[in-house]
Amino acid sequence: MTIRFVSRKDLLARHDVLAAYMRSWQAAMYDPEPHLVVAGDHAWLGDDADEPMVLTAEQADAMNGETIASFMALCDEFQGEPPRLDYAGRLVAETDASSFEDFTDRIGELFSAFAQKAGWSDILLITEARRPLLARELDHPPAAAAANALIKLGFTRAFDGGIVCDTDDLSRLLPHFFRIARADGSAPAMLMTAQGSRAVATPCKYGNLHFEFYDPVERDAIAEALGKSGFLLAPDGECVERFSQDGAIEGRSFRI
């Protein structure tokens, strides 16, 4: 299978668990309510303002309209009620890599072994909101190289849709996803699953894979497959930085 780029609507229609997970994630992460203002609040109006202004009711309404619109633009449109998801727990899979470079060299092979044992073949990937993975041009050389490699594979700076691929393709993509997740603190999280699975996985900046489960039988099977594939299960699902002595991540930056 080659890497196929599809619309977000198309990809989410293929997997009801992923769609329900996305719906719940976006409702929690992109809720405009905490960011709304009322008349009498102080706010900075314009980049050249000398001091914050006391908002009138009209100004508060206008700001709230812009805030709500900006949050809605990040979220997908869902029809009807989502299927019920019975949460079955989470786990964090890590490796014994000696450095992040060692990790990115090995993660493709490790994931291929896991996918074979877990029965993951047709892979679906999508960012957690309508935000492109490669929107920022990063200065950190490993992350910049990862972005360029993804562009050569068909990604664009503006692409925020879904990806359908097989495990061989994902093994090629994963090192690049992890490098970008580590360097770009403003990048959207990448969600991934497989057809037939009721689990959702996310690569994180620390070089771990986070799994959320909605089937206890599959949870146990994936835990076993990870262990047999060279992964380690983090105690109590704790995700920590293992590649730097002081916890700082070299080259990591945020959009201001």
Describe this structure in words.
- This protein is an alpha+beta fold.
- Helix content is 39%, strand content 15%.
- The protein contains seven helices and ten strands.
- The chain has a four-stranded antiparallel beta sheet with strand order 1-6-5-7. It has a four-stranded antiparallel beta sheet with strand order 8-9-4-10. It has a two-stranded antiparallel ribbon with strand order 2-3.
- Strand 8 and strand 9 form a beta hairpin.
- Helix 4 packs across helix 7 and helix 5 runs antiparallel to helix 6.
- The protein starts with a strand and ends in a 23-residue tail after the last strand.
- The mean pLDDT is 94.
Key structural traits:
256 residues; alpha+beta; 4-stranded antiparallel beta sheet; 7 helices
